[in-house]
Amino acid sequence: MTDDKTRSIDAAALKGLAHPSRLRLLELLEQRGEATATQLAALTGENTGATSYHLRQLERYGFIEDVPGRGRGKERWWRAGSFSMDGDRFRRDPDTAQAAEMVLAQVVRRRGAELTRWLEESRTTPRAWIEASVTSSSGMRLTRRELTDLVGEVSAVLDAYRKRARGRTGDTPDTAQVVVHFDALPFGVGEADPGGADARPAGSGRTGPGGPDSGGADRGGADHPG
After folding, report:
1. Per residue in 118-131, pLDDT tens?
2. Engineering a disulfide at 136: which of 40, 128, 160, 206 sits with its beta carbon 3.0 to 4.6 angstroms away?
3. CA neighbor of 22 nearest in space, from 42, 49, 48, 51
4. CB contact set of 168 (below 8 Å; sequence gap of 6+)
5. 203-208 and 135-139 as β-strands: parallel, antiparallel, unpaired?
6. Model pTM greater than 0.70?
7. What does DSSP assign to residue 192?
8. Strand pairing of 77-80 and 35-36?
9. CA 221 – CA 94 distance, rounded (Å)
10. Residue 18 contacts residue 99 (beta carbons within 8 Å)
């Protein structure tokens, strides 16, 4: 991938991604930033040859890319790209349903793991970084058009910051690997659990390690990546 826009993947790319080792490698690159096959093999416990093969497959389908100007000889440094997938379309297609379910289940598992990791790390995270971060959960009643606009506007902000951060490495001063989770989900419009639409009252609340906030934003919150 050569641009900073989020790319929508096709069925072939989805099937190429739906492999436990590849999902794990992509997760590590998003969490930790740029890395070599040797470094990633040490983290996963796989041999370097197998790791290199899976990295090449991820590159083939556009999920990761080589870092220009980094590495010596045959050594290659890799970084994660940005992509989106039409999970609903893929899940409804028998040819891609299994791969889609696997990838989406990994996304859900990963988000829970990242939040759990943050709860542990935040105990010793410098206060300045705590104050700069946030965990946020909001409930509101929107039209379909408003939901589309919300997703588009937030995605545009994320794309702008992703572009700004492009090329930064782990030794870039005063930076951290920041994970951003963003979901905007319309509950209660499907067939399952129709009574759950108003399980939480409309309105908003933002929470951080210190607990729910009764009013505005709690900037003492936390984290998502890459």
Report:
1. 999 999 999 999 99
2. 206
3. 51
4. 175
5. antiparallel
6. no
7. S
8. antiparallel
9. 41
10. yes
Is 87's pLDDT higher than 70? Answer: yes
Range 159-166, long-range pairs (CB < 8 A, 24+ positions): 159/4, 159/5, 159/6, 159/82, 162/4, 162/82, 163/4, 166/4
For residue 193, give the amino acid letter.
D
What's the whole-number average pLDDT of the chain?
A: 82
Identify the sign of the CA torsion 38, 43, 45, 46: negative
Pairing of strands 64-66, 77-80: antiparallel
Separation CA 7–CA 122 (nearest Å): 32
Mean pLDDT of all residues in 200-212: 38
AA identity, residue 57: Q
- Going by the DSSP 8-state scheme, the letter that residue 207 receives in this structure is E
Q: Which two tokens stand for residue 21?
A: 């080792």
Is residue 9 within 8 A of residue 87, CB to CB? The reply is no
Backbone φ and ψ for 136, nearest 5 degrees, come out as -140, 135
Contacts of residues 124-131 at CB distance under 8 Å and 24 or more positions apart, as own/partner, are 129/176, 130/208, 130/209, 130/220, 130/221, 130/222, 131/219, 131/220
Quote the radius of gyration of the chain (alpha carbons, Å). 19
CB 180 within 8 A of CB 172: no
Residue 193, by phi and psi: left (phi above 0), alpha (psi -120 to 50) or beta?
left
Quick: pLDDT tens for 167-176: 787 789 999 9
Given a cut of 50, is residue 3 above it in pLDDT?
A: no
